Amino acid sequence: MQIVLALAVIVPAALAQTFYGCYTEVPTRALTGSSLVNYTTMTIPDCEAHCTGFALWGLEYGGECYCGNSLAQGSFPAFSTDCTMPCAGDATTVCGGPNRLSLYGVSAEAPTFTPYPVPEPVTAPEYEGCWTEVSGVRALSGASAFSATAMTVEGCADYCLNSGFTWFGLEYSAECYCGSELNVNSTLAVEEDCNMACSGDVNGVCGGSNRLSVYQWV
C-alpha cells in the first residue's frame, strides 16, 4: 500500500493594519524597536510582517522599514504630500519619503505624539501681516515644509508649533516657514502683496512672491 502524506501549506495570517498618515522622522529615529532595509523588494506587507509584535511600523525612502511601540519626541503628522516615494517592491504603493514615514499600526486610533516644546504655553495663532522675504537668508529660518497641493494656514500652523516654533509664515501658495522670531531685516509690506491662494485651500491666503503671510502663536 502506498501512503501519501499531505503536506500542509503554511499561509501567514493576515495582520491587523491601520494607516495613520505621513509622519516626520527625527534624527534619532521615530521608531527604534527594529529595522529592515531592502531597496529592491520592500513592500508594505514585508514591513508589517517584520514588525510583528510591535504596535507601530513605518516605511521610509522606498525601502526602509522601522518598528516600535511609540513615537520618539519630535515625530508628528506631516503633510500627506511629503510621503510620495513608491515602495521598492511595489511601485503602486507608497513607502514614505525623505525623512518621512508612512506610518501604520495595530490600533484603530492614531498614536499619541510629543511635539518639540515651545518656550511658553500658547492657544491660537494671531495674524501679524504681510512681510517681505530677506535677500540671501530667510525671514523665518527654522523648520520649513512644502506642499504643492495640500498647504493651508492651519497645516502650517500645526507643523511649526509641533516643530517647536511659535512664528510661522506662508509664501508662494505652497511654502511654510517657521522660526522663533522674524529676521530684523524683514519689513512690513502692503497687504495686497500677499495675494496667493493656499495650494490646499482656495479661500486661504498663503503669501505672495517673496512675501510672507506671517502669524504668531500666542
TrEMBL record:
Signal peptide positions (record):
1-16
Instruction: Give the InterPro entries listed for this entry.
Output: Sialate-O-sulfotransferase, WSC_carb-bd
Keyword line: Repeat, Signal
Q: Does the keyword Repeat apply?
A: yes
Keyword field contains Repeat: yes
The record places domain WSC at 16-107, 124-218
| The protein's name | WSC-domain-containing protein
